[in-house]
Amino acid sequence: MATYRTGIETKFKIENAAKKLFYSKGVESTTYAQIAKKANVDISSIVYHFKSFDNLMLEIKNHLSKDRKLLIKEKINIQYPNNNFAEMILNGVEYRKKMELYAAYPKYYRFYRDVYYKVQHKSAESLIMNMYDKELSLNLDLKQKILYESIITPFQFTVPDFFFSEKVQLNPHEVCDFHVRYILKTLGQTEDFINKHIQTTTEISSNIEITCDNSMNLS
Q1: Nearest by Cα to 32 from 204, 42, 105, 24
Q2: Exposed/middle/buried for residue 37 (C-beta within 10 Å: 0-12, 13-18, 19+)
């Protein structure tokens, strides 16, 4: 019988149960009742710990992002034990691996898309619209248009649309490189700096293996 419980262990059980349900069923198809049943707690325990469904999603997403980054840093330290890579390089590798996970695991991508679009979309709305207005003025071919749109509204795409258009084929590395070039150029970095950054992160990333299971700790 489910009971009302407080404490760190209960919070962890709720988060772990919700994470597995969000991944397997999708956010839209997951309810408080299902999470409570899987965690063997009362619904009121979920509300006590997370206040709202949105907060629960966001906390899971933040923990997963932090865990993924730590996992990648650990793997980099194993492959490059004497490394002194700048934080920008480490972030670049993490971003590249994230894109690979999005392309390889549709359910993983769906979870991040749902959290972004349902919880974080409003806070990013003004920035997105400013970028959209700016890029609309450019004369873009189809491939460039798809790449720009992947920056402007990245989580409104389904996985096949995001990485593989029927007319223009894209892969996660190509999308990642475009995003990195766009961001670093916006920050005022030179073309030489950008090329070296992409070359370095590509080389390091190729030596790092990460899967959905060890990234999300679904066991």
Answers
A1: 42
A2: middle
Query: Which segments of 53-163 are extended strands (E)?
Result: none
CA distance 149 to 136: 10
Prediction pTM value = 0.73
What does the pLDDT look like over 31-81, one tens digit per residue? 999 999 999 999 999 999 999 998 998 898 888 888 888 888 888 988 888
Question: Which residue is listed with tokens 């407080």?
Answer: 6
Q: Is 189 helix (H, G, I), strand (E, B) or coil?
A: coil
Cβ contact 97:202 at 8 Å: no
Reported as a single tens digit per residue, the pLDDT across 82-138 is 888 888 888 889 889 988 888 888 888 888 877 776 665 554 444 444 544 555 555
CATH 1.10.10.60 in the chain, residue ranges: 8-51
Q: Considering Cα of 138, then 145, then 198, then 80, what sign does the dihedral take?
A: positive
Question: Which residue reads 């997951």 in tokens?
Answer: 30
Q: What does residue 41 show for φ and ψ, rounded to 5 degrees?
A: -135, 170
Would you state the structure tokens that stand for residue 9, as one six-digit string?
Answer: 């262990």
Q: Hey, which CATH number is domain 8-51, 1.25.40.20, 3.30.1330.30, 3.90.550.10, 1.10.10.60?
A: 1.10.10.60
